[in-house]
Amino acid sequence: MTANVIPLPNMAILVNAATRVICQGITGSAGAFHTKACLEYGTKMVGGVTPGKGGTKDANGLPVFNTVREAVASTGASATMIFVPPPFSGDAIMEAADAGIRTVVAITEGIPVLDMVKAKAFLQAYPDTTLIGPNCPGIITPGACKIGIMPGYIHTPPGKAKAGKTVGIISRSGTLTYEAVWQCTQRGIGQTTCVGIGGDPVKGLNFIELLRLFNDDPATDSIIMIGEIGGSDEEAAARFIQANVRKPVVAFIAGRTAPPGRRMGHAGAIISGSEGTADSKIRALREAGAKVCDSPAALGSALAAALGIAG
Amino acid sequence: MKIHEYQARELLTATGVAFLPSQVARSIDEAVEGYRKLGISSCVVKAQVYAGGRGKAGFVKLVKTEQEVRDAAKFMLGNRMVSVQTGPEGVPVTVIMITPAVEIAKEYYISITVDRSKNTATLIASAEGGVEIEEVAKKTPEKIIKVPLHPTMGLLPFMAGDIAARLGFEGALARDAAKLVTALGKAFYKYDASLAEINPLVLTKEGKLLALDAKVNVDDNASFRHRDVEAMGDESQEKPLDVRARKANLNYIALDGTIGCLVNGAGLAMATMDIIKLHGAEPANFLDVGGSVTADGAVEAFRIILSDAKVKGVLVNIFGGIAKCDLIAEALVQAGQQVGFKLPVVVRLEGTNVQRAREILAAAKGALPTLVIADDLEDAARKVVAAVKKAA
Q1: Active site includes B109?
Q2: What is the ipTM of this complex?
Q3: Is the pTM of this model over 0.90?
Q4: Chain A residue nearest residue B318, CA to CA
Q5: pLDDT computed for residue B241 by the predictor
Q6: Which domains does chain B have, with CATH numbers?
Q7: Which residue of B83, B111, B114, B255 to mutate against A (max A Cβ within 10 Å)?
Q8: Distance between terminal CA atoms of chain A?
């Protein structure tokens, strides 16, 4: 450790080095590829689930089970990473909750919206279970636990942050999250935890829950929030920031140049009213005191400035 | 997934929504034959297209004689409808629908869609139908009725009754309205709709409740459960490049600018468009290749971008996660060899397998002289805009 590195308490939200993780859909190509990548990153991967392949081992020697209940009983897993194909993903989420999994990370893209409506209603009966996603990159506590498809090497654990400051990142977009992480890493800003909440209309954790967790986490100095056009979650987040968040918030809203009306029909527009446009979201966040970047390439520099880091 | 009005009517009729009879025609003779079958002199001929604004564009016509049916069919079929919603190129008309005209006493609006802020489907209704419903929502939100449906039980009988009452129906009409609302709810769930809409629902001068126009959009993610509806899709209504992109599993939207974009992830793709604009140029398209893109899909993505004559330069921005940089790099080299890059192609790669990708591009640089490697997003945007401006 060099002299200018200031050690920080390795706190984080939701997942840490002790989290034991299984993969639902571990024998599929994406599940297998990313189980290996998570293991290599240092995540405590302890097994997986593929119905009909129980009793076998995966390419890494991890035990494969037929059901999540069996996997939890045998491995003590408390988190799952779901790569199950879309027609079966809603069921996989509910199965995980019912088996006692506390953190359900659904990576799968393309789940029917009405399946998610049902799964989300089902989860109401499981208050100890937190859903992240679907259609998301997952969650990472750098240096401790990666549950998802994000490239690990772009992240910096707080203990290795040369600038001695940290950020928690929340994003609706997968690859745009990586962009934000990379810019922070290049400026020596460590990340406590990064969460991709996913782009689907009906999903698990949203901005507000994560803003609260990061605001309360003593190891997190600042927050980056990345939203996009559509819906009114960013406007709701802005109201929460104004009322509650006492840490610097840097934000970007993607889709300022997107042609209007290509994604939302009549009914969608009626539901969100005047909310939903990039301008509405940017205005709401600026009024709430967040620093909103015009360029996605300016997230790192804006955060450095907000944290008083020269550079 | 979009379908035509006449197909939406079929789906909604099957669950019990009341429509007047209708006839579908693809030729002038079929139109006349359909008109005779209806046996009612006063009818409406409606072009079947995936766009609104038909009335103002002259593609909804009141007819009273066989000759008028013939004239309307002749005007619409084989013509292109240009409306406020289509852009100047318009959409082709290959199918028309004929249905009896009704004398309207009052118009209503009803639809069901998913409300993401409530995590469930929501029914929207208004007694102020027949006008732009968005305008009603904006100016007089109190005239819009919103009822969230139960996430697992859907539209319950009491909700249907409540909506009918709040729309101002009484007696037998209230029962008919509740029945119609229930039927719409049934269809919404049965077909995994992202939108099921009746606009307008009308009360006729004879006191009957009828659905005049209907729209059903099916959730693309649920197409595996609705192959029959998927088969109804009419490719003639989409732009040829959009069809090619969809078949290659690419999320593509053509725009008006000069810089083609190839990006992974919808958010990053939008952000890439935004940064091009910040640097003083305009994006030619939105293109998200997705996470599970194959080499063939990536090559097709390049071909689609390069087949747009407006494109003067290309920005490739890949931050590999589930998508791997080396696969994109190989596809880029392959596309370059097959199509030939005459335009500047600025490439920015980061993430999964980036080292291997950089080696592939370095090795191919000699064969692809217009290839420019960028260090980061800012650098990439600056380089592609500069290259396009230099060429202009």
Answers
A1: yes
A2: 0.91
A3: yes
A4: A175
A5: 86
A6: 21-100 (3.30.1490.20), 104-230 (3.30.470.20), 240-391 (3.40.50.261)
A7: B114
A8: 22
